[in-house]
Amino acid sequence: MPTPLPESLQNWLDAFNGAKQLLLEKGFIATPSNAREALELITRRFVETAPEIPLVKDALVPGAGHQVPVRIYHPAPGEALPLLIFAHGGGHMAGSLSLYDRIARRLTEASGHLLVSVDYRLAPECRYPAGLQDLVQVVEGIRPLLRQLQITAGDGLSLAGDSAGGALCASAAHHFQYRPDHPIDKLVLIYPSLDYTLSHPSTETLASGYLLERERILWYFDNYFPPLQDRRLASPLFMPADGRLPQTLLLTAEYCPLRDEGAAYVERLRTVGVQAELLPFDGMVHAFLNLESLVPDSCARAYREIGRFLQKGRRV
Predict the structure, then answer these.
(1) What is the CATH number of the domain that holds 97?
(2) In what order do the strands lie in the sheet with 114-118?
(3) Domain for residue 316, yes or no?
(4) Residue 237 pairs with which residues in a beta bridge?
(5) Is pTM beyond 0.90 here?
(6) What DSSP state is assigned to residue 288?
(7) Residue 2 covered by a domain
(8) pLDDT, tens digit (0-9, with 9 covering 90-100), for 181-199
(9) Domain total for the chain?
(10) Cβ(248)–Cβ(275) under 8 Å?
(11) Is the pLDDT of residue 316 over 60?
(12) Using an 8 Å Cβ cutoff, are 256 and 210 in contact?
């Protein structure tokens, strides 16, 4: 039986859907600008507080002709903590270091890791694979940068991302499975986009009414990919995979259209010998971490489980 949405979330979602319908009746047309504004308004309204982190620093990771902005969060300066590189969500179109600052702080506190939040290039100004290239550049260049900044870091590097950021992290993990010079220890995927062909049932059964909608996803993808890009080849779900991929924790939301592809990805990892854990959140919608004050218990559980997974087996 489906789990009812919490009353606070259902009431907000009803109001959101009603307001959206009125806008559509008035001829509203989606643009990158208003998509970014919408994510900004929702996140800043419902992610209200965040823990203090002793060391927070903005920096640039150098590369071939392009520097990638990052924000570094160290919960225990001077202590050699493992790295967690975080890629935010937003349909490959929205999101920023500033907007995701509170979520990044929550992840830093929960994980006990030195977290690096990545301000990767966004579509449609910079289409695929620009954002993925930025994440790869950060994985390759973060340790030299930390040494230059005299910021202490320990062994180990993991990736975490929500939604589109989860897609980037999964894609990067597949890239680095063939790069023993840059091993990825663990992978945390939060309601990720893993199948750019939208071929799984939940993209149809949950196509509308639950914040993220199929039509909107297709619009994001049309803005993200160059016209002739093979979207199946770009999908982490269909990329070559073997047992060198990192241990993975994947969170899904019951009323998220990306739910089924998340479950399929976990099964695929298991078939090639990767330790993969599926953590479903009943009664939740996509992007619930951005709706924290509406669903505080589910968000607290998510951060707690992410911390458990990342700290498991860690040498202290």
Answers:
(1) 3.40.50.1820
(2) 55-61, 68-74, 114-118, 83-87, 157-162, 186-190, 247-253, 276-281
(3) no
(4) none
(5) yes
(6) G
(7) no
(8) 999 999 999 999 999 999 9
(9) 1
(10) yes
(11) no
(12) yes
